[in-house]
Structures are given as C-alpha cells and as structure tokens.
Amino acid sequence: MSGTSPALTPPADAVPPVRHPDAPAPGELLGAHYGQCFGCGDDQPHGLHLQARAGEGVSITAEFTVRPAHQGAPGLAHGGVLATALDEALGSLNWLLRTIAVTGRLETDFVRPVPVGTTLYLEAEVTAVSGRKIYSTATGRLGGPDGPVAVRADALFVEVKVDHFVHHGRQEEIRAALNDPDQVRRARAFEVNP
Ligand SMILES: CCCCCCCC/C=C\CCCCCCCC(=O)SCCNC(=O)CCNC(=O)[C@H](O)C(C)(C)COP(=O)(O)OP(=O)(O)OC[C@H]1O[C@@H](n2cnc3c(N)ncnc32)[C@H](O)[C@@H]1OP(=O)(O)O
C-alpha cells in the first residue's frame, strides 16, 4: 500500500521549482551542508556519509551503502535509517534552490527489505514550490539506477532563515559553527537568494 496525504499535495497556486543560477552543474557533488550532519557530514563518525550529486533541473542522485551498524532486523536495514537517507537526499535539493529549509513532513513507503551490504541508489527532485513550502519526492532503488524500488518518500520542506538554527540549536555547536569560516560562508551563500 502506498499513497500521499493531502498535506503533501501542492496547492493550486504552487509553481515549478527554479534552479538557482549558481547551483552546481549536473554531475557535480554538492558537498556536506554541515560537517557534523548525521546524513552527510564528513566529520560525523556515526553518520551515513551520503554524497549527493546535482542532476538536471532541481534533482539529485546519491548512493547509500547499508552497513552492519544500520540494521533493524538481522541482516536488514532499519526503516528509520532508510528514512534518514531519504530525508537527507530530499534536503540536499534545497542547495540547488539556494534555500535553507527544514523537513516539515516526510512520508515514506517501505516497498522491499534492504539487506546489509546493498547500495541504495537514491533519486530525488523538487516537484513544486508554494511560498515557503517546497514539495519533493524521492526513490531508493536496490543496487543501481535500474534496480527495483525499495523505498520512496514524499516530503514538504519549509524555508527558514539561518536564525532558525542560531535560535534553536545548542549553543556549543552554534558557537563552533559561527567560528568556522567555511560554515558561515556556506550558510550565507543561501541567504543571498534573489
Ligand atoms: C552560521 C550559523 C550556523 C547555521 C548554519 C546552518 C546551515 C544549514 C543549511 C542547511 C540545513 C538543512 C538541514 C537539513 C537536514 C535534513 C533535513 C532535516 O532533517 S531538518 C530537521 C527536522 N525538521 C525540523 O526540525 C523542523 C521542525 N519544525 C519547525 O521548525 C517548524 O514547524 C517549521 C519551520 C517546519 C514550520 O514552522 P513556522 O512557524 O516557520 O511556519 P508555519 O506557519 O508553521 O508553516 C509554514 C507553512 O508550512 C506548512 N507546514 C508546516 N509544517 C507542516 C507539516 N508538518 N505538514 C504539512 N504542512 C506543514 C504550514 O501549514 C504553513 O503552510 P501555509 O503557509 O499556512 O499554507
């Protein structure tokens, strides 16, 4: 069974997403938005280390190899870990819009079990934008781009300002991020969105 709730159906006034002129070219790696991110951070030893690559339009691809630490049942990926990989892939799309956004809603269909050792091939795209609301969809296929669909998700991301993190994040990490010129540059690049 699968389906999308009305909350994830774009309203009538929604418009197609517009790729930012400075978005990375198709084929380029996007890079992590934050080194300690559980989904994409290079400096996060417990993380998924997802690397998203820009596609055409407002789309990305990414690969995620399921490791023993990701198990739920013996030899199978935990559903929450798979949802995290989808969330991260969907979140990385916002880099192509040059918009900072957080997940408001994430609906996931688990279609096939995903064994440890499998590389999940993820594809995600933004389908519509309405004000601060960004609608997107993703699939994860077993083994490669032509493999069977194992997971899919629909999401609503909501645009926020950098202040969202400064206000809500634990001071220790916020202070460290503000003292990291690379992190500040990355965050500010989003804010000059025309
Ligand atoms: C230099 C300083 C360092 C900082 C640098 C940082 C740079 C980082 C760069 C990039 C980071 C990206 C990180 C991605 C990580 C992967 C993705 C995640 O896992 S994110 C974590 C999980 N998500 C949350 O923690 C959200 C928690 N929720 C909230 O904060 C709020 O609820 C929020 C922002 C989502 C909305 O709150 P409102 O007060 O701003 O806005 P309202 O008016 O409630 O919603 C706006 C519209 O969206 C709809 N909406 C909101 N939530 C919805 C929902 N759950 N379902 C359906 N619609 C929803 C509402 O109905 C409204 O729609 P209508 O404008 O009235 O048409």
From TrEMBL:
One of its GO terms (cellular component) is cytoplasm. It catalyses: octanoyl-CoA + H2O = octanoate + CoA + H(+); hexadecanoyl-CoA + H2O = hexadecanoate + CoA + H(+); dodecanoyl-CoA + H2O = dodecanoate + CoA + H(+); (9Z)-octadecenoyl-CoA + H2O = (9Z)-octadecenoate + CoA + H(+). InterPro entries: HotDog_dom_sf, THEM4/THEM5_acyl-CoA_thioest, Thioestr_dom. Keywords: Apoptosis, Cell membrane, Cell projection, Cytoplasm, Fatty acid metabolism, Hydrolase, Lipid metabolism, Membrane, Transit peptide. CDD domains: PaaI_thioesterase (cd03443). It comes from the Bacteria. Its EC number is 3.1.2.2. Residues 75-137 form the Thioesterase domain. Belongs to the THEM4/THEM5 thioesterase family. One of its GO terms (molecular function) is hydrolase activity. Signal peptide: none annotated. This is Acyl-coenzyme A thioesterase THEM4. SUPFAM superfamilies: Thioesterase/thiol ester dehydrase-isomerase. Residues 1-26 are annotated as: Disordered. It is a peripheral membrane protein. It is found in: Cell projection, Ruffle membrane; Cytoplasm; Membrane. The lineage of its organism: Bacteria, Bacillati, Actinomycetota, Actinomycetes, Kitasatosporales. It comes from Streptomyces echinoruber. One of its GO terms (biological process) is fatty acid metabolic process.
